[in-house]
Predict the structure.
Amino acid sequence: MKRPIALLMLTNVLGGVGVASGIAVGALLVQQVAGTAWSGFGQALSVLGAAIAAVPLAQLAARRGRRTALATGYRLAALGAAAVVLGAVLQSAVVLFVALLLFGIAQATNLQTRYAGAEYAAGPRKATLMSLVFWATTIGSVVGPNLSTAGGRLGQSLRLPDLSGPYLFGIVAFLLASLVAMLLPPSTTTPAATGRGRSGISALAALRWAMAHPTARFAVLLTAVAHGVMVGVMSMTPVQVRGHGHGLEMVGLVISLHILGMYAFSPVFGWLADRIGAIRVAGIGLVVLLAATVTGLLAANGHLALTMVALVLLGLGWSASIISASALLAGVDSGEVRVPLQGANDALMNYVGAGAAIIGGPVMAFLGYGGLNIGAALLLVPAVIAGVLAVRTRVLVA
């Protein structure tokens, strides 16, 4: 099944380019159209769009297969990117905000590719192949922001607002990703392929099922908690770095190192999940996330090197947690539950991330960067408890 994995990696590269090229200038475009007070609202809308789209995309995957769901998601994201350009031309905040919701569907679609990788994988290497698909995002995350200048020039040459130019690359990238997705072989998880008459249960029913099954419950809580900790701390780190007198170059370096930690080593965690088990890798992820928050607490006085270490650890802990949790969810035996649960998990992940981004500002304003990291460490407790219960249940069953 090398060809499907290669195709999924290519869709993730293209999708990553589209997402990253837009995110790089999104806040500036919102500031230009709607004013400074709304500049952070654009990213929140994109995350919200990803959360809203996760369940419908999973339902579509259950009914029609992964390739249809992925192609549809990327096409809607291309429509969103085009609408962003329209909003910039019209200088309409309403059009721009609706467009950014649609644009966020790209992130939900990118996330779904990791589950597709597990479904197309054969044998005991599911986590490894899934993590390779996930790793491909690294390329897009690096290339996308570097298209900002070229996108601005392209926009100007077409007599469009320069900040809308990078979204033109997004349109092309998402449309190409949808075409590549259609080259995937038919899914083996649809009702027609499995011989079942139903395409799956509702997202809420899937979450209720997970709460009654310790391993699935741990996977869902780990995903939500890891993403909340990562987004909450990461989103406020630029404010911390700038607040201690460092320039935008240092802000960019810190975030780049963080993104490297998030994606570059995901194949290592996938390989480990196949070798020693996803539960153990999940434990590693929680330990690394705790180390990140402790290091962040020590860096609260403005120590730049410690801040860099904290953000790298934050990315690594997130990567280990997401890969291991995804592997656990991909291993759910019930075909009726598996795909709806994956969609519900991604939706919850993005809702928690959006909430963490919103809450992070007030928490840091009142308690500082150290207090923010203490709060993030406390957020890990539910996942730790769920992990202990999952391990205990497995031992009792064995």
